[in-house]
Amino acid sequence: MKRVYGGLVVLALVAVTGLFAKKSRKPYVETAPAYRIEGPAGAPITISEFSDFECPACRAAEGPRKQLLALYGSKVRFIFKDFPLEHIHPWAKSAAIAAECAGEQGKFWELHDLLYANQDQWVEAKSPPEAIEAYVKSLGLDNAAFKACLKDPKTVALIDADVKEGQERWVSATPTFFINGKRFIGGLQLSALGPIWIDKILAKKHG
Questions:
Q1: Is 118 within the bounds of a domain?
Q2: Looking at the chain, which terminus has fewer C-beta neighbours within 10 angstroms, N or C?
Q3: Phi and psi of 46, rounded to 5°?
Q4: What is the CATH number of the domain that holds 20?
């Protein structure tokens, strides 16, 4: 299968200009199922990420994302949101559904990490759904509950709601991050400009 590097062209343009992207036109209350949220509810910084499990740029952004969270610790609340680009990544939504169902059993982040760490393997597998299922089995989940979750329309509805929100917020490439409402596209912009924006917010709160 030919790999499509969604978002990399946009990412390169952002890196060259070194400019912040415009804010979303509409303010959003950043919400998601509890299993997709890390960090304290009262944190002064909220980072949300619209991501696609089949997107190589999203996998590459994992390093900068984790470094940023480690740098600011309890000052940051992180929220993952699904934005599968199905027109170029045919298995992204299947992976997102599996991650949601793992989340129902408290294993969202474990499967999240496995899907990104092994992205080349499962995407290029003869049957990506079977490859994903193998990662799920390694987590020791209740298989009957997991299978039922896969077929539950509510699971797909959660992902579709994220996609709708992303579209309303003018998300067109993955990964797209929002830090207290300000948009950053890709791991390079997150690591280069994210700390500047976060420090500015924190300085105002303590000024």
A1: yes
A2: C
A3: -120, 125
A4: 3.40.30.10
Cα(75)–Cα(38) distance, rounded to whole angstroms? Answer: 11
Angle between helices 92-104 and 108-117 (to 10 degrees): 150
CA–CA distance, 198 with 45 (Å, rounded to integer): 7
**Residue 164 corresponds to which tokens in the numbers above?**
């709708």
Q: Is residue 45 part of a domain?
A: yes
With respect to residue 154, please indicate whether it lies within any of the assigned structural domains.
yes
Domain count, the chain: 1
pLDDT digits (tens, 9 = 90+) for 127-149: 999 999 999 999 999 999 999 99
Which tens digit of pLDDT belongs to each residue from 35-91? 999 999 999 999 999 999 999 999 999 999 999 999 999 999 999 999 999 999 999
Domain that holds residue 116: 8-206
pLDDT category, 22, cuts 50, 70, 90?
very low
Q: Is residue 123 part of a domain?
A: yes
